[in-house]
Amino acid sequence: MMSRTMAEAQLPKRVDAGKLVDSNQQFTAYIDSANLERLNDAVVRCDEPIHCQMVFERGTDRKRVLTGSFHTNVVMCCQRCLGDVTIPLQGEYKLGFVLNDEQAKALPRQLEPVELDEDGKLDLWSTIEDEVLLSLPNFPMHPESECQIMQPEPEPEYTDSDVNRVNPFDVLAKLKQK
Ligand SMILES: [Zn+2]
């Protein structure tokens, strides 16, 4: 609908990469994360859209390039307490469009190759999904102060000097009572 601004629009799934480069197209848009099956499989929950910014342009050597960034939040399983933890994700990428492996090898090193299909079309959703998946932490964890397993059992408070005076035999006696 024409009345929607670009900021509200969902990114198109499949785009003509060459055409977007030629018109130097720029997007600020989102992808509904419900559309990203691999991402949903990799996390506990992903309720937020993936917010994307991207620019299609000619890079050095007239290479066709997509430069962009994304950000979102996902819920993952904390590797310390196994509770839910919200992980902010963000990333930047610089992709060079290629049609085959040969072209991929010939790309300058700072460009990550992304293959277009035989019609020159790019699957934008799965391209961004790849980037989001790459940004997932291997060991998602709460900050220590928020991690449930780090919160000690409620116990009477000891000062340092109290701790020093604890008799190890008292501790053993208490254990035996359990
Ligand atoms: Zn935790």
From TrEMBL:
Keywords: Ribonucleoprotein, Ribosomal protein, Ribosome biogenesis. It holds the Pfam family YceD. InterPro entries: YceD, YceD_bac. GO terms for biological process: ribosome biogenesis. One of its GO terms (cellular component) is cytosol. Plays a role in synthesis, processing and/or stability of 23S rRNA. Belongs to the DUF177 domain family. This is Large ribosomal RNA subunit accumulation protein YceD. It comes from hydrothermal vent metagenome.
